[in-house]
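== Folding task for one protein ==

=== Format: two labelled lines per protein ===

==== Paired sequence and structure tokens ====
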Amino acid sequence: MGVLMQAFYWDCPREEQQEYAWWSFVATKLAELRKIGFTALWLPPAGKGANIGGMSMGYDVYDYYDLGEYEQKSARPGEKRTWFGSKDELKALLLAIHEHKMKAYADLVLNHNNGADATEFNPITNQDWWTKFNPKSGKFTRDWTCFNPSPYPDSDPGIFGNMPDLCHTNPRVMSSILNHAKWMIEEIGFDGFRYDFVKGFGGWIVRAIHDRHYQHRGQKVDIFGVGECWAGDEFIDSWLDSVNKWAENRVGAFDFPLRYRLKELCDSPGFNLRTLANGGVLTRDRPFEAVTFVDNHDFRGDGNDEIINDKLLAYAYILTHEGYPCVYWKDYYRYGLAEPGKASGIERLVQLHESHAGGATNILYLDDAFYAMERTGAGTQPGLVFALNNSGGILRHSVRTGFKGQQLKPLAWRAKDMIYDPPNVTTDADGWCQIEAPQRGYVVYGM
């Protein structure tokens, strides 16, 4: 499926001195990202946020259609751009992404809004609330009937903070959501969506978006979609079923259960590697719908902490296993985990994902401290062998692979607190060989 880059993180325009210029900044990275092997970028919400108390990351949507054209709700008088730039700069970025043979996915916030222009009386609650939205774009205007509770019954259980909660069963809201999605694809140029906080609305909305046919510049667009279903595996399963049953264009979900398992791997040195073979994660149970990741913009403290230690163990896992892996911009660039030109960084793992990581997954060896698996190969991807070690020293084990009478070379590796140079291994006629991995480290072998 390729490799996805989450091309932002929280407060990234400020952190990287790119305020009002993020779209143009990302464009400068496209050539190197494509050369390495990235195939798609997930971009932050493009619409104008409420910008209450300062510039916004866009998750407090005020005007869905203002991509940086109108002066409103800005922290700087006279400023028309979003924190990421102007509409023209966004469209130029999308054009450049397509010229580099990559895809672009928009972050779509369909549950909550913020920054209304006036309060209104809600006769159901007998209270005034900020629900009157008259954005300068003149599109997708809202009043109190567009938010829960409204005259339209909505079983939606997910309320986000104290923001007005869209009533998705209101025909005006539903048609506006569908029209906006169509506009983002056909006029602006996105190839699909990351759906924010999908626990806040019915899966039928996402299915309705994906059941439509789209064109951009006269070419058919087969849209991609992934839901942020921040929950356990049973809830994610039920959400995926609600969206994908009888659907022509199936939607994926972020593998949150796997992410928490990988955090234990990295931040708990005594983690039992047998856990990696258990079900309850999308990459094992529903690999074709799994979008795997290590961290994202929502892991920034208050009990939702980033992975702190040995994070490359987690990247080695998602970039060798099944699923659609997503690399986090902050890890790649800000934390320096790309390690260009080295065998030990994300860059090499992305390259190997694209060149080798095809086919089914077979576990070759498993105990508390050593985990080995192979990808069997598919098409032009010959497959690989992955060995992971969670002990304090080098470990070796004999495994039977699908590579018979072949020499396997170490293609990527990493060791904690030691200089390590893994040897080649040769399989016998039945595929047996002895592989090794260094302390708190891994080796990826291949032809």
